[in-house]
């Protein structure tokens, strides 16, 4: 580059570096005036434009640059960013391929071409590029790029079954062609083992692994050791593994639980590896093995003492397996071991979950275990406090249904409160960044009250739970576990705003929004005040969805980077991570929630319909991954009861079936083309996922589309006319994809666009199901109001009715103008619509009035008093003062009032907007 | 008693019980993938028999010449799994890999000067303070804005490649540098 030109170009780069994109464009224009064909400047201008969101202009320039087939490094780099910004990933591939073809000696261009293919997951092409590079540049690294691309192609769902072994065998052949053996580095060794495992060549893999270097690698590389364990298991070399594990446990003092599992598997191998009933000889041999293993574990336990739990826990597992294989064991053996375990490690927080798998006691064993635990309650020091927490949790775990009466549960709740308040003394001097040692007692209180609510149906118990947990949360500000319980309880109590507060205080961010946003966004439309212009939940959806953008812009880059650093062991995981996030169920559940709220928030115009339709159709065929984390919610309910999570879900969590049902509902409502069979068909999986009210709603939407569909078809201009119109307005814009669509439409244009000559479809009465739906919802509403159902159920009914009304408005908006009614002689149809609208409006208005009145009632001094009285059980027993409970009562009732009134006003507004 | 296994990209879907704790930061995707795509062998997880994650360590290898070393970027254990020597086990793996695979001279880490529990644990593992780094941590914004909160100790432990213990010094607490001087 000449210095003169360099002087001109530098300011452009400077402007781009500082994100001054407007001045970058100006600087580019200045150069382009004198040198209109400067490709680099054009590319840089395209980059500035794409950053300014001027997509159309950028596209035009980008196409011009690409047509010149650039090979200059600066141009290629700039264009890579431009095309990435435009989402034209396959053009990046083509651009580098073209450049590499022109300069096959250029190693860097080859690398970039390879990476471009990797980023889009084009493994076949990537493999070809890498092979070519290996031939050209004779670097083993390119050989492994080619090998691993072949492995990934074999792994790809799109690759035909028969081709997979062929690819893997090719990869294996390539490995032996390398200049250095695979154990040159652990990641190459990993690739070799992976291929052998996939080809089921376990003996060959074992040979590599038993080699001195192989062993050495597995000692320092967890990844290789992991695949080694896997291969040995597949090979059936369990006993050999067991022998090695024994040495590691006894001589090297290795306390990786995997070693203990290896030894356990080896011990029972002769029985567990065959489906045949074991002969007496085999049983005797295994019993002998058990004795030997018991000795190993006992020795480890003795050596470790209080330092490590492995030995004792392995002994428990050994007894459990012995019993499950029907071999003789003393009935009380497991209980005694559990007692021993508790005596030694009862002061560790994880003692409870360590012991859970071994505690299915009954009868006399259970009695002895219970009395053992009861004798271990003590509250003298922080250590004994932790021990007592475990005692209470373990006792609760084994409660039988007979012991779960309201009276006994109430007594338990009161006892938990008492010990909680006592236990607070151990945390008085802790800074507010620390957790209170007694927190888990408060969590147990929450569990007992939720259980009481389940047993009696009385809302007051949830209020008591809320009051206690709020108290505990104020004392242990960083306890996210307490907040998780509160989030669930506030939703049940119809106080979503308080749930949202706690959720926000948990500081959920980045990838956690995928796994945890379900806590507040599952069926969020039912809490949303979107009709009033409150976009809180819509913004939460948008914010929580940021992570999917990061995923699509960042993750692929790291897949390429892992190739460049030769960390092959990570690549399959990176791909899985990208896929699980990209096709996350929660992602699309949030999308649907957002649409449901948007329809209530905005006028129903073509812009909304078109945009949402494209997006919904796009996600309709996805195969989803459910990444939602429900496990993080604590559970200390007895084993005969459902978990806390299950008990406190306002409705069962929406799954893939729910998503599919609602996608169909909205795609049908937005659809401009005749209904396709796929959208009409109901699947059992969908029905199973819906609540009772949602089932009615689903039937209603089907009936509605079926009824209104033919009129839409008749009135709508033919598709070819629509496309011609669209093409015309798009003609000025470059890079548009409409041509091919228009051509396809022309091809099938004989199919029904001459309708205008036909008579309009006969006007049919509305299907009975439609008015009936609104009646049904009204009676559901009335029943719930007069019963003891929770606010969450009431709001669900209201939200469903409102949604039905909005969909009705959406589907009939086309037939509103008088000109249409006249032109198509739809007078009678319009009358039917009007009648239905009037009916539905009056029901919505009634709901609105009742809800507003309920809101008034709840937040009065009387309402608060009722709350405080309901929570009397927590005051009788403890130091909770009246004012604290009153404070929580005020917060809860105010939040409920705000929700009720907001939703009531929203209903009225929806009716007004669409009548 | 726990499973020691590699940290995987998909662990980001299941580390909530660890990362919701206030002392553990949740970074963007690129943070974790940067470490995994370069030093996967310095990142590992301790897992409970029921599959819950208990804690993890994320480390890297860096420095030039005599300064080439393993670095502990994040070490964390969920509250319910503390006091089980998990940190000790993860550190020993990281030291072993820094020593044998990367041939580093030492391992180092930063710790808040106020975190006396962690400091004494590291001292028990053979680490000593090499220097004090001013304002290494941003204020937590918890209203206890003492200097010690923001300053870090850079603690080091020599590996087998440094038999003469040149990477550590006796009176490290008195050597103060500013945050700009460290990488």
Automatic annotation (TrEMBL), chain A:
Chain segments carrying region Disordered: 735-765
Entry-linked InterPro entries: NAA25_NatB_aux_su (IPR019183), TPR-like_helical_dom_sf (IPR011990)
Compositionally biased residues, Basic and acidic residues: 754-765
Source domain of life: Eukaryota
Family recorded in the similarity comment: Belongs to the MDM20/NAA25 family.
PANTHER family: N-ALPHA-ACETYLTRANSFERASE 25, NATB AUXILIARY SUBUNIT, N-TERMINAL ACETYLTRANSFERASE-RELATED
Protein name from the UniProt record: Actin cytoskeleton organization protein
From TrEMBL, chain B:
InterPro entries recorded: Acyl_CoA_acyltransferase, GNAT_dom, NatB_acetyltransferase_subunit
Listed SUPFAM superfamilies: Acyl-CoA N-acyltransferases (Nat)
Superkingdom as given in the UniProt entry: Eukaryota
A Pfam family hit: Acetyltransf_1
Keyword set, alphabetical order: Acyltransferase, Transferase
Domain N-acetyltransferase: 2-160
Protein name: N-acetyltransferase domain-containing protein
Source organism (scientific name): Somion occarium
